[in-house]
């Protein structure tokens, strides 16, 4: 019997050993998925929507229990873990309320015959998802995949096997037929091999660029539709006419939410020199106010990082910056003791060729870089291989909107930071990926758009 360990990152100790599925079991799951799809796609959309509503109700009813599971298995502080669950419920309600309208056939341009555009499900969607939002990352794809009549096979991160199994249980408790949503406990190599299987019709992947590139290659080779979200290095631009107090107040949670382990978090703070000193002072002050400790405690802001391997990458990025002249205004760093605790770090004197500017920093590190002009801010913001999100801070709406239009990203927050919402498409450009989740745009990613002409 092969197992993977579920580890509590707060203590570094094993919670339990989870048995991995065998190749034979995975093949049976694929077969079950394909068989179930034939019935699920014919299920009336109103019935599917009722099940989505049931799912949302269970999430809300048990939000504290699921939040505790998230906190125990990946370290997210409780005051963020419970809202993650509630947000998933809200998202399921959104698709339950809107799926029927999204599926309505659309009339095409007038002609000599009736012409309609129909939206039909593809089949089994293989979802390969990361650990940092154990419920949201899975359910933000599953909600519209299932609402559209597709079925899903999940390969979740090996860091959160208990969350992965519990999500499948919730679907069954909500009344979804067996096979509509199944969790596989397998390694990445096994999951990748499934892309070539006939039963799999599309792939939804969230993770690192290198892994995403391999998924894209395999999917393209096998002519399978895919959607990729591969992280970001989001700029947070503070212009000389910004409300600096508000910008700093939002900047701190924007960087340090989920202990900085968030793809859409602000990761590069680009500040015009007229307000740089004030912003930096307020940012440091508010960073020092963050409470670090046991993620189960309701007042804790910063919990552990998920694994030591993640800490080592972050330490190398900080070391590189300091060796090239950056100054640690808040030294932060690894905290001795059990688990994987890392205190927030704030760096000034940053230059654009440091790793904290060119790579995704997936942890509580905030680099601040000063620029002289608006044009320089835009150029620096776009000088990245990534293009997921961005924030622009200015009290002149027209100015902020003009800059937002010049940023090479999938999302922009004006006087706010980016957060995924069910009604807005989520995804990026460049090495941040391709395709979208959420909203009608995400809903249609895994639908066959069929033209029907009747003479």
From TrEMBL:
The keyword NADP applies. Keywords: NADP, Oxidoreductase. It comes from the Archaea. This is NAD-dependent succinate-semialdehyde dehydrogenase. It holds the Pfam family Aldedh. One of its GO terms (molecular function) is succinate-semialdehyde dehydrogenase (NAD+) activity. Belongs to the aldehyde dehydrogenase family. Residues 3-452 form the Aldehyde dehydrogenase domain. Gene3D superfamilies: Aldehyde Dehydrogenase, Chain A, domain 1, Aldehyde Dehydrogenase, Chain A, domain 2.
